Amino acid sequence: MLKGKKIVLGVTGSIAAYKAAMLVRLLVKEGAEVQVVMTPAAKEFITPLTLSTLSGKPVLSEFFNDASGAWHSHVELGLWADAMIVAPATASTLGKMASGIADNLLVTTYMSMKAPVFIAPAMDLDMYAHPATQHNIEVLKEYGNHIIEAASGELASHLNGKGRMEEPENIVKALKDFFFTGSELSGKRVLITAGPTYEKLDPVRFIGNYSSGKMGFAIAEECARRGAKVTLIAGPVSLPLPHPAVERIDVESAREMCDAAIAQFPSCDAAVLCAAVADYRPKVQAGRKIKHTGEGMTLELEANPDIAYTLGRMKGEGQVMAGFALETNDGEENARKKLEKKNLDFIVLNSLEDKGAGFACDTNKVTVIDRKDKTVYPLKSKKSVAKDIVAHLSKLLVALLLLVLPSTASAEGEELNATVNLNASKVQGSNTEVFTMLQDALNEFINSRKWTTNTYEENERIVCSFNFVVNSYSNDGSFDCSLMVQATRPVYGSSYNSMLFKYEDTSIKFKYQPYDRLEFVEDNLDNNLTAVIAFYVYTIIGMDLDSMGELGGSEFLNKALNIANNAQNLGDAGWRAGSSNNNRYSIIDDYMNGAMEPMRKLMYKYHRLGLDTMFKNADGGRKAITECLPLIKKAYEDRPMAYFTKLFTEYKIDEIVNLYSKCTPEEKKEVVKVLSEINPSLSTELDKITKNDN
């Protein structure tokens, strides 16, 4: 997930700077390109030579090179990077970043950064707890930075408390989680408006409001993380781009925002209108600054276009629209009127009467109202609120899709709903036509091929995402790629998807010539590309059928195993590289092996008896989920390094925390104990299961 990402790592003068060496090593191992920027004080704790050797790049610390006079441009670094990490971040650097004191290359780089910024504080417990430090952290959060909380433990002072820089493995995980794209909204285009609008009185004054844009930006980030193509129309705010997959259009006035929204909306599947648009503008805008005369002034206003009403009249079949209502009185009544008048599918109500909600806050308290029901949510961070809103949006999109589909009861041979993305950005100066043709060939091969004769209900179709990153390409048609593949399984009777498979395949070598068709014969393989795709498709289908019926996917899992066996002659050592667990053969061999039978039973008990049942019988579903614990433990004991144990701990961690949080206190303790033994790095997440039991 970090393959090809450009990362600026800022290192400051903390004893925790020694951890920067491991952080660089892990980032490079993940395939990232790392440029280290150090403060002068950081060089007292770790040498630039160490970090330069690990990153493969000269470390930057000063604005220019004394010997050559070369200028180290912080502006170019800000444009180059996909993300910036400041780790460790001292109290001094936090203060400078929060206050804009740009007296070293690290802070100037931060202030020029166009990409998301992650900050991992490190200091003694009293410094960390000091109101000034906490204030600076809150300010940096308000600016849109991602704070990686300090951990608790023994500090350099030999005191115990909160202040330790988070471990490099967890920092890398936070970065990978950010860049990971899910598939729930894959193929969907979402339009989002955010922030205020400014209506000019004269060249220096305007009518506006206090909107910070944080809520809209959080929704844009969440939609992008779930796989949507997002267009964010932003009013005048000082927030960074929320996610690399978001296209941002900056506007100032209501008319500019309306024009941009009208242009984008017809090609979108959904729109979330979160901006606080000025209802009125001055009828006359002065060309020069209005001078103070000591007398009163009458200001004549005229109405701005109503963006929600305009798009509501444009809305076509298959489109979903959501709006916001910020009210000071009669909130629900006013929100429902707005819902009807503007042809919205749902509306998000919040009130200035609720403390912590509304403008200029990092939190919000909302009620989601649709045409049938309403859901009241407690006070949460805006990022958490965004997840609730996007979940509601996703649910409506799925429901709408089922309504507009042809009225057949099932779809034969359409067992996959796959998206394929070919990312060739790392290859410069090549014939882009080759990549376009390969993208089309991949799409047709995966989505047009009839992989099974099974008949699937529409709400049972597997959702797959194949993301190819081209590392190199030669004119003879040779490709070297990495592949990130993910599949989710629909939970029967709901719009919820559960992670079924998630894997990164780091080395795929194949040849492809323009106009080649991708053909596949299971017992006569002649192309690594088709073999790899078919292998993962059959693995995913087999796992899905295992989850629908105990050991029910054997036919397809055997197909995948046969492909792995037959592909040995294709010259790709990745199929069966010695005794490594990190190859395609071992994935399927482990799953088919008798020692992994608990994992295959786990698929059925967890998905079919657990999640599927939960939407009809919550208690029965949770009971089945709880009974999965011994199976996870047994599978881990049989194959400690097997991929599938990781799938059910790390990749499903959010889901597991949510599900097991509903269990009894005794069950919760057992869950945390067992899963912590399997994967100690998840202890912070697992603590959430029991956090409310004290």
Would you write up a description of this structure?
- By secondary structure, the chain is α/β, with parallel strands linked by helices.
- The chain has four domains: 6-179, Rossmann fold (3-Layer(aba) Sandwich), CATH 3.40.50; 189-287 and 301-401, CoaB-like (Rossmann fold), CATH 3.40.50; 417-592, no CATH class; 595-694, no CATH class.
- 39% of the residues lie in helices and 21% in strands.
- An eight-stranded mixed sheet has the order 12-11-8-13-16-17-19-20, sandwiched between helices. A five-stranded parallel sheet has the order 2-1-3-4-5, sandwiched between helices.
- The radius of gyration is 27 Å and the shape is globular.
- It starts with 5 loop residues before the first strand and ends with a helix.
CATH superfamily of the largest domain: CoaB-like
Q: Give the biggest beta sheet.
A: 8 strands, mixed
Distance between the termini: 37 Å
- SS-based structural class? alpha/beta
Number of strands: 27
State the helical fraction.
Answer: 25-40%
Number of structurally distinct domains: 4
Q: Give average pLDDT, whole number.
A: 86
Count the DSSP helices: 24
Side by side, the strands of the main sheet go 12-11-8-13-16-17-19-20
CATH architecture of the largest domain: 3-Layer(aba) Sandwich
Low-confidence residue ranges? 402-413
Strand content: 15-25%
Tertiary shape: globular
